[in-house]
Amino acid sequence: MSERATSGGLAVLIGIYRAVLAALLIAITLLIAVAVFFRYGLGAPILYSYELASLLFVWLVFLSLAGGAAQAAHLGADVLTPYLGPAALRLLQIAAHILSLAVLAYISWYAWVLTGRTRVEMPTIGLSMAWMYAAVPVGCGLYMGWIVYDLSRLARVPAPAVVEA
Description:
Elements lengths: L7 H34 L7 H22 L15 H32 L12 H4 L1 H22 L9
Helix pairs in contact: 1-2, 2-5, 3-5
Membrane topology: Multi-pass membrane protein
Subcellular location: Cell inner membrane
Family: Belongs to the TRAP transporter small permease family.
């Protein structure tokens, strides 16, 4: 996640988080490579490979939300921000975080309800689709945690002094 927060227990958690993301990416890559080899090299497809790769990919995407936000890697448009002073920019960041928390809370709640309601199973691996839907509230929860962390940072930053002419 963020390079500025690398001390103590938080650094350990960030390291574990990054290791989980890397492990998911490696697992997906290996699974797809082996599945392609079996299908085209040996003529014996691995039936569950598509479903398992899809499940792992959904988890990778939603778990990556917080890391992307911490590195400011999400899509953005700097239409207004170059014209704002430090105080206005800070207020805009706080407002965006609060709005993001509201949207993520709604998405998490809805996904949680959907996770509890689903009775559909993935046919080849026999797991409930709830495992796929559960990635949404977990990933959004991590993202909301990062937003709260960043809001605490923004609250600690002293407001710039107003210079009167």
